[in-house]
Amino acid sequence: LTGRVDSAGPLITLLTDFGLVDPYVAEMKGAILTVCPEARIVDVTHGVDKYDVGMGAFLLAEAASFFPEGTVHVGVVDPGVGSSRRPMVVKARRGLFVGPDNGLLIPAAQTSGIVTVHEITNRFMMLPDVSSTFHGRDIFAPTAAHLACGHLPEECGPKVTDYVKSPYGESVVEGKWAVCRVLHVDGFGNIVTNLTRADLNKLHLTENRKIILTLNGRRLTTKITGTFSDLRKGEIGLILGSHGFYEIVCREASAGKRLRIKRGTVVRVSG
Amino acid sequence: LTGRVDSAGPLITLLTDFGLVDPYVAEMKGAILTVCPEARIVDVTHGVDKYDVGMGAFLLAEAASFFPEGTVHVGVVDPGVGSSRRPMVVKARRGLFVGPDNGLLIPAAQTSGIVTVHEITNRFMMLPDVSSTFHGRDIFAPTAAHLACGHLPEECGPKVTDYVKSPYGESVVEGKWAVCRVLHVDGFGNIVTNLTRADLNKLHLTENRKIILTLNGRRLTTKITGTFSDLRKGEIGLILGSHGFYEIVCREASAGKRLRIKRGTVVRVSG
Amino acid sequence: LTGRVDSAGPLITLLTDFGLVDPYVAEMKGAILTVCPEARIVDVTHGVDKYDVGMGAFLLAEAASFFPEGTVHVGVVDPGVGSSRRPMVVKARRGLFVGPDNGLLIPAAQTSGIVTVHEITNRFMMLPDVSSTFHGRDIFAPTAAHLACGHLPEECGPKVTDYVKSPYGESVVEGKWAVCRVLHVDGFGNIVTNLTRADLNKLHLTENRKIILTLNGRRLTTKITGTFSDLRKGEIGLILGSHGFYEIVCREASAGKRLRIKRGTVVRVSG
Q: What is the pLDDT of chain C when averaged over all its residues?
């Protein structure tokens, strides 16, 4: 599978840390539409914390799997822009991923099924003038547009295998404890961890069971629950989120604020 | 009228309280485009205060009437997700409204002209896996996409009549006073009330008349004016907003900040 | 050149100071799609500081040149709405610009190449009801849609030549010093000035040279550099931005916060 044009126009998604005040996202869209006028562009988010490649990788992986096959996903969280880090395209089973070689694209591409990775070296894929500070507009956007309009990842440049792999920690079970990490605190204050049902199965913990959480030097007694409405207003619980990871939530309030949690915090769970 | 495909592709609007940092809005868009690739999606807003069904209802009602006939509007401000509150579709004269049965859709649908309301029970209308926390993506988005691509509201599920009606208070005239409420304070600090020209007519108050406002225990002498430019910089006035409600405004400043007003505040107006 | 319909649908961009919470941007989009259903709408930004015509003009000028020929650009930063300031359309070589006659559109239109300017007086171009507070929705959006669908700027109203020109200051070289201004501090804290390579050439200053900056009563010794990665983390440098202006930057930090700089600040540069 590669980019293709269907009757409704090919899909390109954008994820960046540019925010929505500056004109950078619009410049990328203009560059895309100049190369591939029939492209349809969907924003994933432009609210990634500046330079936070891990957060961007998590959000892209969450969103990408809900898009149709053949979608071209562009990710730009790129603290190394202008250095020797390579621009690249990942050809995966369900779509294409375009962005910097810094791990940003990898979790999403792995979920989709990585086929090959190519460095982008072919000047034809880029705008005529390439700045040293804005590869999102000058390299990634036009490359994505060329791919969406039918060019092949193989045309971008040489195949590479030594690309940066993402450093996501995995959750582990140690004795009676599952040890996991906070991947993201969402806008509702839900604390997304990398804890899975498989981890809880190993501890024989099932829904409606009381559990103990330790985090930030605190110890909480709470429960695994099926839905928000099983919690009283303000009560904290552990709930299987829509992405397959457990989340620490607080009904109609922000668990993140209540527990003063940030991305990366270690959380331990036991029966 | 029901959803239909025209040559430019059917229109779907989205209003949520998800914000723009998380990937939730993008996941809804991916789900829509998977079901109905030719859909064109327009964001109304994703900045509704979390769980504030009333604010969402107001904003949706304001925006929906400016969209073409046949538009499918999706609203997701859904504190009861996962509980027994029903997912529903409202068939109205000028469009369709999809979301939770909690009053969110009703003011917009009433403006459009409600024809029938259907619960969404048909699994065909949903994603294969329905989470307990994210019906926006798993039920409302794919249902809207099926409707946009030609399915009928009647196919969603049984007709219901006992849906939640919205609790908007109406303005009243008591003696020499019109008593109204603050529906919304917009991004410019304009204070949108539910006061109408009919209220002021009853009090024989017309443009350029001096008036008295009482709110938050304060009493202000001000005037009804036709345009911002009739006010001096920093002056407060009452102006008929573009939505047919009077707004308390302050030229080139925020009336909301100056008067420390929040949604729900009671305002009294007299000559 | 005027608006035209190609197979993918004509392009309209939007720039406002409305923010993304209120439904105003969506109402403009609804008005556009009612008049011209095949239009494709791209947001430039809605995060312009309220009433800051200069900031809006800068951002529009930055973004517009990356869009395809024939794009219709709408700008609404309009403190004079409802007064006698005129609504207008600028016909330029690469596109059309629609908005208030307050200078907002001029830098972008000049870059594109101004051909003629027309006041919008023809009621056919507007919504049936024109409010005194929201010309973005009632005049500019439908006019842009009519232009995108093939109407001509000449149909909008009479040609005008006495439109407001933008008051951008230009950088100057005085003896050993280049004197410039801060045009914008972007979301990364990069301080965009109106200093150009021509200014530095006059002072015989080239890349990797040490330079002196004075601003806000402070004196900094720093260097002109080619890329962010030539700077140490936290180091301040002067870098040619992607828009052709020099920016004062700080690697992986906000130069704007470090130097407490705002739009309009005067900066002096010497060898």
A: 90
Q: How far is CA A49 from each of CA A54, A165, A172, A180, C67, rounded to the nearest angstrom?
A: 10, 20, 27, 22, 27
Q: Which chains neighbour A (Cβ–Cβ under 8 Å, 3 or more pairs)?
A: B, C
Nearest CA among B190, B185, B231, B184 for reference residue B207: B231
Cβ–Cβ contact A49 with C under 8 A: no
Q: How far apart are CA C131 and CA A119, in angstroms?
A: 54
Cβ B180 vs Cβ B194: under 8 Å: yes
Query: What gap in Å lies between CA B163 and CA B52, rounded to an integer?
Result: 18
* Nearest-by-CA chain B residue for A44: B26
Q: B84-132: per-residue pLDDT in tens?
A: 899 999 999 999 999 999 999 998 998 899 999 999 999 999 999 898 8
C9 at B interface, C-beta within 8 A: yes
8 Å CB contact between A102 and A43:
no
pLDDT digits (tens, 9 = 90+) for A192-223: 898 988 899 999 998 888 999 999 889 999 99
| Burial state string for A17-51 with b = 16 or more CB within 10 A and e = fewer than 16 | bbbbbbbbbbbbbbbbbbbbbbbbbbbbbbbbebe
- For residue C261, give the amino acid letter: I
Task: For residue B149, give how far its alpha carbon lies from the nearest alpha carbon of chain A (Å).
Answer: 13
Among B59, B64, B229, the residue with its CB nearest the CB of C83 is: B229
Q: State which residue of chain B sits closest to A62, comparing Cα positions.
A: B23
Whether A51 sits inside 8 A of C11 (CB atoms) is no
Q: Which structure tokens are listed for C261?
A: 């700089």
Q: B198 and B263 in contact (C-beta within 8 Å)?
A: no
Using the structure block, give the residue that is written with the tokens 């926390």. Answer: B133
| Residue among B44, B68, B241 whose CB faces C23 most closely | B44
Using the beta-carbon criterion (under 8 Å), do A45 and B9 form an inter-chain contact? Answer: no
DSSP state letter for A228 = G
This complex has an ipTM of 0.82
List chain B residues with CB under 8 Å of C41: 42
Helices A24-35 and C53-64, interaxial angle, to 10°?
A: 30
Nearest by CB to B20, which of A47, A60, A67?
A47
Of the ranges A21-30, B78-87, B184-193, C4-13, which one carries the lowest mean pLDDT score? C4-13
Out of C62, C63, C68, closest to residue A34 by CB: C68
